[in-house]
Amino acid sequence: MTSIEFVTLEVADTAAADSFYATAFGLGSQVRLAASEAPTTGFRGFTLSLVVSQPGNVNALVDAAVAAGATTLKPATKSLWGYGGVVQAPDGTIWQIASSSKRDTGPATREFDEIVLLLGVEDVKASKQFYVDHGLAVAKSFGGKYVEFATGSGPVKLALYKRRGLAKVAGISPDGTGSHRLAIGSDAGAFTDPDGFAWTTASETASL
């Protein structure tokens, strides 16, 4: 089963980004950084999600991110599916922080259960087939709207969403040009998908 070992965010200032992620989320090797000045404007076509166990953890992580310099795109609030909020890191990466629970069951912490990479694609069905052809197994699929892949014990999960829909969830315009500023490190090999998202072998990208 294909696993995603990490994602590499391409940022203008690696030292500043490293400080933000360590301070805000306490991230380890699941999210790596690489210096880049590649032109990019607007929505980069993806979000990263921290999935947590309860609303208190959502609030703790959102508050820590904002205190470290993030911008609030959607304040944390209850919804039909649970509780969550959206922030944008100083490097431009959009983070959703969410829980399927609407009630706290213990003291709030900044612990999270998993990281999910959501790629906003133009044609969900076509991208789903592309990834299946590259060895990924589908865990859940809802027609042309959403696909979740089975990535085993890898620390980063993967899902596909329509680009416009993902931008709406994130609270921003779907418009954007240039680099995604993202590379996906896995054991699936090196390739670029139909929407321009680059995959690298896990051994190619070193942690900074």
SSE order, one letter for each helix or strand? EHEEEHEEEEHEEEHEEEE
Cα-atom Rg, whole angstroms?
16 Å
Average residue pLDDT: 94
**How many individual β-strands?**
15
Total number of helices: 4
Protein structure class = alpha/beta
Largest sheet: 8 strands, mixed
Which stretches are low in confidence, meaning pLDDT under 50 for 5 or more residues running? none
Strand content: 35-45%
In terms of quaternary structure, the protein is single chain
How do the strands line up in the largest sheet?
5-6-7-4-8-11-10-9
End-to-end C-alpha gap: 27 Å
Shape by Cα distribution: globular
What share of residues is helical? Answer: 10-25%
What would your notes on this structure say?
- Helices cover 20% and strands 40% of the residues.
- The protein has 4 helices and 15 strands.
- The chain has helices at 14-24, 55-67, 124-133, 163-170; strands at 4-11, 31-35, 40-42, 46-52, 71-78, 83-88, 94-99, 114-121, 137-142, 146-150, 156-162, 176-178, 182-186, 191-192, 198-201.
- The strands form 3 sheets. An 8-stranded mixed β-sheet has the order 5-6-7-4-8-11-10-9. It has a 5-stranded mixed β-sheet with strand order 2-1-13-15-14. A two-stranded antiparallel sheet has the order 3-12.
- β5 (71-78) and β6 form a beta hairpin.
